[in-house]
Design brief:
The chain is α/β, with parallel strands linked by helices. The protein has helices at residues 32-47, 71-78, 96-109, 148-154, 159-162, 168-179, 183-202, 237-241, 274-277, 302-313, 330-339, 365-383, and strands at residues 10-18, 21-22, 56-60, 87-90, 115-123, 129-130, 146-147, 210-211, 213-215, 223-225, 260-270, 283-292, 320-325, 387-394, 398-406. The chain contains twelve helices and 15 strands. The relative contact order is 0.21. Belongs to the thiolase-like superfamily. Thiolase family.
Amino acid sequence: MTSPNGLRRAAIVSPIRTAVGKFGGALSSLTAGQLGAVILRALIDRTGIDPSRVDDVVFAQGYGNGEAPSIGHWSWLLADLPLEVPGYQLDRRCGSGLQAIVNAAMMVQTGVSDVVVAGGCESMSNVEHYTTDIRKGVRAGNLVLHDRLSRGRVMSQPVERFGVITGMIETAENLAKDYGITREAADAYAVRSHQRATAAWNQHLFDDELVPVPVPQKKGDPIVFAHDEGYRPDATMESLGKLRPLEGGVVTAGNASQQNDAGAACLVVAEDKLAELGLEPTAWFHSWAAAGCDPSRMGIGPVPATERLFARNGLSWDDIDLVELNEAFAPQVLAVLKGWGWSDDDSRHEILNVNGSGISLGHPIGATGGRILANLTRELHRRGGRYGLETMCIGGGQGIAAVFERA
């Protein structure tokens, strides 16, 4: 079936994720490529699709390296899946996982592919240190090693044009000043995120989307990892209030997103192939948009991205039943809400990040878009809603937003 614009409808089938591991935590012994293989194998097993019917694999990774190049294909091969299926890797920083799903949907919509695997993986625990000094040799002096995690944040925009931005914390502090976000307001939002994630776990709301990960041990059987590590059931204003600001402002380790390890994936399938393949859609891809913004205020990216999206798809806030705004930093989220024109007592707060987000559940860069989609689509079904909005800010000065429709 084609839509009025002549494009085929793209179905989202079985979005799944691993639990999210802390930096240096339970998943730290597994590389990003290995996490990718785990989630890909699980997706094929869960959907029952013949893997040879997959036309391509689109995988996101925020911190790619030479250990698993073109990680979509690399992880597919590690999962012992058919050699004939190609795959690739993309990077739109924090928006990479959502962009992978968008790319797959466009491939299906335009008829280039019938079935595409989309998702991403990240092992921030294993991001390497590197040097740019040694290719031509070091005759004397010191050799500098960069931490790719922190260096990528400093170099997310050209210094020649924008000067030195010390990292993403600085951008969040800029928004806190621009929009008058207080430390107390940031902590209160973070407490809510932890409380909602805790409630979701207590109500088993993540059970259907989770894939257990066997983690090999030096001795004995593997330990099965199947529970998010980062949320704080005991988070209170008092406990978060004891944490010192990271750079002297309002951002602390308690009201910022974490560094994490995880994988996420789904099938994106042409509507006219669903019955033949015996697949049931979880949701339909509806529309998307991306927009740029000042790198020093990168956290505001969801505002222009969502504005552009609504201008393109004809929808408005009145049509949206659930909102997933990735929590890079609490002051960033609060600034975006002000940029959207939401008041402090706006009823839409009740449909925002209803089961927690980056502050509580974590932000494994390449897997975040898929993690959000796995929960957003299932929550739409639980609530009987029609449209869900997924959006996030992006280091370097971008935002991305997409709408998904309940199937």
